[in-house]
Design brief:
Elements: E1 7-12, H1 41-49, E2 58-63, H2 67-77, E3 82-86, H3 92-106, E4 111-116, E5 120-121, H4 124-138, E6 143-148, E7 159-165, E8 180-186, H5 191-200, E9 203-213, H6 214-224, H7 226-231, H8 242-247, H9 254-259, E10 265-270, E11 274-275, H10 283-286, E12 295-297, E13 300-303, E14 309-312, E15 317-320, E16 325-330, E17 333-338, H11 345-354, E18 365-368, E19 371-379, E20 382-389, E21 393-394, E22 397-399, E23 404-411, E24 414-418, E25 421-425, E26 430-433, E27 439-443, E28 450-457, E29 467-470
Parallel strand pairs: 1-2, 1-4, 2-3, 6-10, 12-14, 13-15, 14-16
Antiparallel strand pairs: 4-9, 5-11, 6-9, 7-8, 7-9, 8-10, 16-17, 18-19, 19-20, 20-28, 21-27, 22-29, 23-26, 23-28, 24-25, 24-27
Helix pairs in contact: 3-6
């Protein structure tokens, strides 16, 4: 049996946020957004597993682009889970290997429950029972995955064909779950093949949810992915060169790299109300609908539309007589498409990336560990932002090579460092920060947010023109 004291949850919170554009962006992917409730999908996942595993044995693997926001969300909900930051995305196999090394450093008997951060599970209690059952099986040295019972001929998921029961002739456990050997993994099928899988009854949707001992998965990675094992060998005691280690790796999933090759794979079939919410159209499966079958959120005024997904943020969106249509409006971009073309949203993101357009990278309002900034207007040589600094928070001590900044305080009091000077700027006052000058903006008020309007001027205004000298949020890279 698995020992609950050695259960750890590893939440995979990478991903670039292409299929939920324009709500998701590269720096604000789906897992970090409030999509279905007033909690982010990461928060929902953390809450789902909290009854089984405490927060101090919960780990979140994320990328360097998203680490600040993950930490911010953990502070907001007061959960002391541990982020594991990858220097770059290399798919699930390196992410899981890195996490396994971290767990073994703390707990040599660690049992890993690996979950994506952006899935929906409707039957939470049954889900926890299923994970407990999987942990008991994984304690025998097996790699266990959860396979969900298909209820339609889905072409967007990979499949697992279950083989013989793991213990021939045995009855299902008291919780109703039974494990099977994995006969094979199958890539996403065409429609006719998916219909055959559904009728067959032995094919399951591949959920991307796994349970195994950390030591077991590392053994199998050494066996089947020696390049990954070699690159991350000894990573427990040395993290300074993690980026260089990742540079040597290709992109490989744990499914393709290990599970399709191992002889230790087992699967537990389950019906838990699962969805990976893989596109806007997938909201049909998990979101509440009105009497005409529409999913409606935000400032929407609709007349006579049917079976549509209508999402608005700040602006009023009026729709009339739509059918099977997706409309998503954000402050800087609007999507309109047929529901059956939802998977093609990634083509828009690819085109924006090719054009170096910011609308696939960030929203107009960007979360930072200290508060937010909103781009109000920009043009050749200038950019205007509204900056909100949380109470008792401050930006890093920093410098810009190519731009100057004018700060006008519109609410609160700014405690400013500019070169050798340290001074306060009151509401309706302003100050100027020259290029090549160390500076810092701080809100010393413990209650009231500080709001300023910042006007940037210079030949280059990119967010990467920044040198940090001191930072409260660990964003200064190690000196080499």
């Amino acid at each position: 049996m698995a020992d609950d004291a050695h259960l750890h949850v590893v939440i995979l919170a990478g991903g670039s946020g292409t299929r939920f554009w324009p709500l998701s962006r590269r720096l604000a992917p789906k897992q970090l957004l409030r999509l279905l409730t007033d909690r982010t999908m990461l928060h929902e996942t953390l809450s789902r597993v909290a009854p089984l595993v405490p927060a101090n044995r919960t780990w979140i693997v994320t990328g360097s682009d998203h680490a600040d926001e993950v930490r911010r969300q953990l502070r907001v909900i007061d959960v002391n889970a541990t982020p594991i930051v990858e220097p770059m995305g290399r798919n699930t196999a390196p992410a899981i290997a890195l996490a396994a090394h971290r767990l073994l450093e703390r707990d040599p008997q660690a049992m890993m429950i690996v979950l994506p951060a952006d899935h929906v599970i409707a039957k939470s209690e049954a889900f926890l029972a299923c994970l407990s059952s999987a942990a008991a099986i994984a304690a025998r040295g097996l790699l266990v995955t959860i396979g969900f019972l298909p209820h339609r001929p889905e072409t967007g998921y990979g499949y697992i064909k279950r083989g013989t029961p793991l213990d021939e002739g045995s009855q299902p456990r008291a919780d109703g779950f039974r494990a099977y050997r994995v006969e094979r993994f199958v890539e996403k099928p065409d429609r006719r093949t998916a219909e055959r899988y559904l009728a067959d009854g032995t094919y399951l949707w591949n959920s991307g949810i796994f349970v195994w001992r950390a030591a077991t998965i590392l053994d199998e990675i050494r066996r089947h992915l020696p390049a990954v094992a070699e690159a991350l060998s000894g990573v427990e005691s040395s993290t300074q060169d993690l980026a260089a280690r990742y540079e040597r790796l290709g992109s490989v999933s744990i499914d393709y790299g290990v599970l399709e090759k191992t002889d230790r794979a087992a699967v537990i079939p389950a019906d838990l109300g699962w969805s990976d919410v893989g596109s806007w159209a997938a909201l049909d499966d998990v979101a509440e609908k009105d009497e005409r079958g529409n999913v409606v959120a935000g400032r929407v005024l609709d007349f006579d539309s049917t079976r549509s997904i209508l999402y608005a943020q700040d602006r009023l969106v009026a729709t009339i007589g739509l059918d099977e249509t997706i409309v998503v409006d954000t402050p800087d971009a609007t999507l309109v498409c047929r529901k059956d073309r939802a998977q093609d949203v990634r083509k828009v993101v690819e085109a924006l990336e090719h054009r170096h357009a910011q609308e696939h990278v960030v929203h107009k309002t960007v979360q930072r560990p200290w508060g937010t900034y909103t781009v109000l207007e920009e043009g050749p040589g200038y950019k205007i932002k509204r900056i909100v600094v949380n109470p008792s928070s401050r930006l890093s001590l920093q410098m810009h090579h190519q731009r100057s900044e004018h700060w006008v305080v519109v609410a609160g009091t700014a405690h400013v460092t500019c070169g050798e000077r340290v001074y306060d700027v009151q509401t309706n006052q302003s100050t100027y920060i020259p290029p090549e000058t160390r500076h810092r903006l701080e809100n010393v008020d413990p209650v009231t947010p500080l709001q300023i309007i910042e006007v940037q001027s210079g030949p280059y205004l990119g967010e990467d023109d920044i040198v940090r000298f001191a930072d409260d949020f660990g964003r200064i890279p190690p000196r080499t």
